Amino acid sequence: MRVFSSLPQAGDESNSVRRIALIALGLLNSPEAETLILSRKYGSVEEKEAAMVALGLLETITPKTEAGLQKTLHRGAIGPATMAAWALRYRSDPGNIAFLKKVLAKKDNCWLASEAILSLGGAKNARGVALLGNILLATDAVKSLPAWGKLEKTRKKLLVILANLRAEKINYETAHKEYLKKYKNWNKDNPNAPGPAKRRELLGTVEIIIGREQIYEGRLRASAGIALGRIPDAHLSAARALREVLTRKNDDFNDLPKGMAIMSLGELGDVKSVPILVKILKNLRVGKWKREKKSPLRGYAALALGLYSRPETTPQGTRDRPQYEKVCRLLAERMADSEEIIEVRTAAAMALGLSGRTENLKLLRQASRTIGRSRKNEEILVGYTLLARGMLGDKNIIPIAKKFLKTANDRRTVSGILSRRAAVLGLGVLGDQEAIPILNKAWHLNHYVNREVALAYSLCEGYNATEPLLKLLNESENPRERAFAARCLGELFTAARPQRLSRLIANSNYTMKNKRMIRYQALGNEFLFVYLIPAFGEEWR
Q1: pTM of the model
Q2: What are the sequence ranges of the domains in the chain?
Q3: 63 vs 453, higher pLDDT
Q4: CB-based contacts of 502: which residues, under 8 Å, 6+ apart?
Q5: CATH architecture of the region 2-123
């Protein structure tokens, strides 16, 4: 295949181009892809990690390759180990599931533990529900997990240093040395490797950061919340734990697992959770509720209600879930309220699209008429409304998107970029050939936006872009352009939908940020984790 022959070789001067090319190999998923990935010589750790990601994108790998990934996870440095853990998560054979369970039972690294927790959901084994429920609810049983125990031990050590400093049992110099020592022991297992806090020389003080460990505990709980939503055979017991965590008192640490629990309840279609989700989403205008009104949980609730409203597939055919019409009307009401915060309006619009119900086009169109009545910048709502309508097959968005995506209107603000990315994808999911001329022009928007053109081309089957892409890959002197072309070709010739690139983010815990994975996760295009959640603004961040 010409695309294979065009992929950069080991002597290429740009590592970024080679990494993207490896991902393209994983996406193409041809019989020779595994051999090609393993046969290349890699000059850096980053390239080896890209190769592991590419192997994770393949639908099948040989037992020998799987064993090699397990060895890297068990014995390798923390960075490559986390990449190998991700690559193994989609291998559902009993031997690999047993291996990942041992990782959770023996490894004290919270990044590896997160992947092991998620793998329990990926195995779709009802026997894992009790353990996952305990992790989500942070019961006493969880304290026996090595990763949890290490976080608690680290926090206690730092609290002792802080207490001794306040009691003047030690001076600042000693406190700083002890802090660095304890932090270094903790930091060695962090793939992101942030630097320790610096001593404030002029003030004679030292910053001792307390609470980081609780944040990571919350992220492990969030992983359990995600995993519980992936075990439909144990729906009742899983949903019970997911609902229970939503009754816990709100704080900065509980919001992490609650958000993922909300999404899992929507995915499971749990009817008992509907009143809870409606209460979270409800209109809050009283002054004392200002914090709750800005809570990102309201956006999650809107999205979950959209997922709940989808027709349910059963062995006897499709059926409607109870109260779905009432839920859809509530979503339209939140979208149409010009006094509502823009993040919730955007989430409500997307929820109507996620419902998969064409009858919701009427609600979307009616609610769209309220755009422009607020003094706030509603540009992001425009883009995501186009995406939602595209998801429901509304061809009337084509002339609107054409005007919205004009090069003269290009904006590099956060809202400008996100709204245009959403609009481009809206044309893509519409899958209409009439959208291709608009996408051709959208290619000339800023690079944050034109990366979505690659996916939109493939969704519209715009194969006439192949020749210019090959020319760009072979002849461009700009490494970024060549990387972009490689990615476009991988997108364009991906046969299966949803494509495997969504593995990078679908059913992942994006709160367990791993900087080594972010460059690859940024390539993924999954509604919930790339297009929707970032639209929740600074409050979510």
Answers
A1: 0.80
A2: 2-123, 273-376
A3: 63
A4: 524, 525, 526
A5: Alpha Horseshoe (1.25)
